Amino acid sequence: LIGPSPTLEMEIYVDKSFCNGCANCISQCTMGVFKMDGDQAFVDNEYICVGCFKCQSFCPTNAIQPRIVMRVS
Fold first, then answer.
1. CA separation for the pair 59, 53 (Å, rounded)
2. Cα 56 to Cα 67: distance, rounded to the nearest angstrom
3. What φ, ψ does residue 46 adopt, rounded to 5°?
4. DSSP alpha helix (H) spans, 1-73
5. 11, 24, 33, 56: least CB-packed within 10 angstroms?
6. DSSP, res 40
7. pTM
């Protein structure tokens, strides 16, 4: 009997209290994960993220918090 299969997934969170609307995350993300809502970035589709972490590297205010999580289903 084989148990549940773990999978690795990306979770990305934009802390709006830190986001200054610079849009670096949008210009650096090659997958199109982020979009703007007025002067705030938001995650449009985290499921297409490839985990390069460029968004986090280029965010001047550390508003982007990506992480890899293991899920067991």
1. 10
2. 10
3. -70, -15
4. 24-28, 54-58
5. 11
6. E
7. 0.79
